[in-house]
Amino acid sequence: MLIVQKYGGTSVADIERIKKVAERVVNTARNGNRVVVVVSAMAGETDKLIELAQQVSSNPDEREMDLLLSTGERITSALTAMAIQELGHKAIALTGRQVGIITDTVHTKAKIARISGDKAKRALDEGYIVVVAGFQGITEDEGDVTTLGRGGSDLTAVAIASALDADLCEIYTDVEGVYTTDPNIVPEARKLERISYEEMLELASLGAKVLQTRSVEFAMKYNVPLVVRSSFVDAPGTLVVKEDSNMEQVLVSGVAYDKNQAKVTILGVPDRPGIAGHLFKTIADASIVVDMIVQNISSDGKSTDISFTIPKTDLPKARPLTDEIVNGLGAKGVSIDENIAKVSIVGVGMKTHSGVAAKMFQTLADQGINIKMISTSEIKVSCVIDSKYTELAVRVLHDAFDLASPSQ
Ligand code: ADP
Ligand code: ASP
Ligand code: MG
């Protein structure tokens, strides 16, 4: 079998753990498999690099940022390859460039255009374990280093698994699989044996960082067999698979939360056609992804407030744009709230049931938690709340929808 194994930051947090990873990898190879390993930076390393950049500049250039951030993964790839060699197995460490990951030019959240993988294939044929530095690629024209967005090593692993037509892509992390909610917040959370790509995609995009959203999208599109499991204990993990008729169509399958969004409100916007179009085109042209949008009713028929959420990391880029928009439109001003969180419930069963959203709102109200924004789709309901209530909200929702018990 050809297996891609990805190890996250906590799994390569120090030298002892890197040696443990090397042992697992070598065992997999000695059991007759060809192995590609994708590694993240050591836990906390990427954050440290970001802090360094912020000490130098309040709005660091994203091209240089990517060059800086890509170094974390290079360190672990080299160390992991050395640890494998030390165990007596051939290993080669490759950067994103060397493995042929070509991306677009959107620095800090580049999309993969293609992967050549030739060097990796040759090395595998020659009996090497290939260790790839996750989270990075290069642009086609300039050969500039890009990164794939936070958590992007998951995407590296899935994309390489697809490019090399691997039999399995294993994501090794610090929890035993995908749970009904973050097990670090709700100890009663239940590990799922299997989850559909669709539900996983929804959970991930709503903040369950156990898998990066784009990695799930990619796995779904190219049918990459995916399993999430622990690098610390030997347990079966969670299979991420195509939805099939045997899967229970549970009402609510998980609770997710996201503390990385900020709410931007443009105050006193003239109430006439074309304004929202202009506002959101300006934001989109800067490659900022807007999530929720609320336009309040105009009480005087002349002006209104428009609120929307964007990733906190995009605030430095968004601030000058919103100032420009306010001046251009003759709006009254901008207010930014960084102390928000989005809590969401997800489940395919919602398609055919009513009352789920009402139950969510009531559960939050019972705790005195005010809802600032709401959005719904066929299979999810999200509420923006004050971030200080995040953990409480996740716990009471997990309880209200009885997610700890397998029979719900
Ligand atoms: P890695 O460094 O291995 O990539 P991450 O920190 O990115 O690991 O993702 C694993 C974390 O995801 C867990 O420690 C857990 O706190 C969090 N998490 C959030 N939601 C879930 C969920 N539904 N199931 C499992 N883990 C979750
Ligand atoms: N090191 C990167 C991050 O912290 C990528 C990853 O860990 O997947 O986001
Ligand atoms: Mg991760």
Describe the structure.
- This protein is an alpha/beta fold and 408 residues long.
- Helices cover 35% and strands 25% of the residues.
- It has two domains: 2-174, Carbamate kinase (3-Layer(aba) Sandwich); 255-400, 2-Layer Sandwich (VC0802-like).
- It has twelve helices and 20 strands.
- The chain is globular and about 75 Å long.
- The relative contact order is 0.11.
- The mean pLDDT is 94.
- Magnesium ion is lined by residues 8, 151, 154, 209.
Radius of gyration, CA atoms, in whole angstroms: 22 Å
Q: How far is the N terminus from the C terminus?
A: 37 Å
Q: Please give the CATH class of the largest domain.
A: Alpha Beta
What structural category arises from helix and sheet content? alpha/beta
In the CATH hierarchy, what is the superfamily of the largest domain?
Acetylglutamate kinase-like
Under the CATH scheme, the architecture of the largest domain is 3-Layer(aba) Sandwich
How many beta-strand elements?
Answer: 20
Order of strands, main sheet, comes to 3-6-2-1-9-11-12-10
Strand content: 25-35%
What form results from the Cα inertia axes? globular
Report the mean per-residue pLDDT as an integer. 94
